[in-house]
Every structure is written in C-alpha cells, then in structure tokens.
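User: Here's a protein and a ligand (magnesium ion). What would the complex look like?
Assistant: Let me lay out the input and then the predicted complex.
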Amino acid sequence: MTRVRSLELRLVAIPLVRPFRTSFGESTEKVCVIARVETDDALGWGECVSDVEPNFSEEWNDGAWNVIRDFLAPAMFAAGDVDVERLASVFAFVRGNPMAKATLENAVLDAELRAQGRSLASYLGAVRDRVGCGVSVGIAPSTDVLLEQIGGYLAEGYLRIKLKIEPGTDVDRVRAVREAYPEILLSVDANAAYRLTDVEVFRALDEFGLLMVEQPLHHEDLWEHSLLQREIRTDVCLDESIRSAADARAASELGSCRIVNIKQGRVGGLLEAKRVHDVAAEFGVPVWCGGMLETGIGRSTNLALAALPNFRLPGDTSATSRYFAEDLTEPLVLEADGTLPVPNGPGIGVDPDPARLEAATRRTERFEKE
Ligand code: OSB
Ligand code: MG
C-alpha cells in the first residue's frame, strides 16, 4: 500500500538530434509531462508519452496535464492508502485518457518499488537482462539522406531498421533500402495513413521481405486490418489500434495482425501492458516494445517491460544518442551486440539529473494531499 503525499508535474522540452517526421507530423524537440510523486517512503517518476498535438492519439500534453490536475490526482489523493494494482480502478471513472493514467500509475509504482528496493523488471517478471534494439527512422527529405542515416545506425549496431512511410513515400524508398541492405531486419510504419483501397502498395511491399508492416490503416478499424492481412503475405503489426488487452484479444481473434507493438502509455500503464503481453502470448502473437521518443525516464520503463518473455523482436527503444545530445538521465548507451541493458536498480533504476531537469522545465505545478 502506498499513500501519495504530493505530486509535481513538469512540462519539459529537449531538442532532438534530428527532426522526426511521420505520416502525421514532424517534431524537432521532445516536449512531455514528467510526474514526480512523493509517498510516505520514497519518490517516484512517471513520463507521459503524449505529445504537443493530439495526432498519434486523442491525448496531448496540455490535455493530459489538465486531466491529471482536475480528475486523476484528486481521485488518487482521495483514495488515501492505495495499492498500485488498484489505481486503475480508482481512475476508471475517467473515460479513456490512457496516457495520463499511465503517467501516475508509473510514478506510484516506481515509488512503491523504490521503497521495497525492488527493480521494475523483477516486479514485471523479466526473463532477460538486455533488450535488442532497433531504430525508428523518420521520413527523410530524400532517399540519399535516408540511406546515409540508416548506414550510420547499422554501423552503431542496431538490430532492426523501421522506416516511417506515407502515401507517395513508400515502395521506392523501401526498394532502395532493400537493395542497399539485402539482409537487414527491416519494417515499415504507416501510422494509419493508408486505406484498404491502397492494397496494391502493400502487395508491392510484400516483395521486400519485411518483418512487418505497422499500423497501415485507420486506428479504429480492426475489421479492415483483418481484410488487409488476408490479402498480403507480410505480417501486419498493430500499434495505435491496440488500446487494451481486450483490443489485443479482438485483433487476434479477427486476424487483424500477427504481431503487436506494446506501448505502456498507449494502453494505460504497465499493468495493462503486461495483460496485452499475456493475451498475445496466449494467441502465439509475438510482441515488441514500441516507443514515443521518450526521455531516459520513459525509456528505462520500456526496457523493463521489454524484458518479459513474449517480447520476441527487437524494439524501438534506442540509445540516448539517437534522440538527444543531453537526456534528463545519464545516457543509455548501446552495447556492441545491439542491445541495451535492462536497468536493475530499485524502481525504474534511473534518476533524472536535477540540473538537467530544471534546465528542461517550462512549467511546474504542485499538488498536495490535504
Ligand atoms: O508509431 O511507433 C510510432 C514515435 C512517436 C509516435 C509514434 C511512433 C514513434 C516511433 C518512434 O516510431 C519510436 C521511438 O524511437 O521511441
Ligand atoms: Mg507505430
């Protein structure tokens, strides 16, 4: 049981080492909400995976901040002594808003585990101490620039390359990458930019031996994904469409995908993420850990999750240098074998550097239990 005494929210901003473009927009900096909770026994940290605009999902930073301030934090304080495994039910009166809910659940869980001296990885049931890393490569200004970027990532040792695609910047780019690198593990992520009538694009992509095609169609359409999956050989992987373990079950039953990308924030936190993992395992569907360009706080959380047994493919959690010149935490550094170590200290196993956190902060608000 944990009693949260106070909550501090910060909006932080850190420049990205290069712009990151997807089918829904471009970012040049990482801007996110960081929660710090203080319990009777420890401090805990949680990073919200929402972005500046509601384009990957319905949530966005200012919205998440207000939902936490006006609904989730008051409910958490009113609940008093609360078991982190019951926190989701304390928050259930708020419809949706998984990223905001996950932020507080992560922070409370981190505090609880720090108080016990136990690592998040051990709590979740980790079976490995390092995690295979891929890179998600944004839509580049040209094919030459893309090939140069990929060459750099492969030289660093990354085990899988994921290309962001959008209509018009897809088959030709993938062909060029495949010709340059015939053997690499390669996938694409459309972030819901296509329609079922674009099936010819995916038939063309079938020729390149891709590991998967991630979220090709509308985020709310499991049915159309099941139709597309029947029409193509490449495995469909769902990201945006999977918001819960129930969605994972529906998608598996329907045959909407053969692989699931798990992002703990997208599904409302680590406990639901573990349930998604378990449902997928039940259906023989491999999962891998996605990312949202998190700082070291969120990426350490992801590394613990990715140590569970059904995370069978390299994930999107990359080293600090792929995102930031300076992170909030000590840099996470890629090992020679293309892995990142799973943090084994108490809780998420890393701490934000106070000076860097302060320098990155644009706004702070504190809430106390009455
Ligand atoms: O769809 O997986 C995605 C980043 C922001 C929003 C959505 C996605 C991504 C990525 C980057 O692909 C993954 C990462 O390096 O964190
Ligand atoms: Mg994705």
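Summary: The pocket of magnesium ion (ligand 2) is lined by residues 189, 191, 214-215, 239, 261, 290 (CB under 6 Å).
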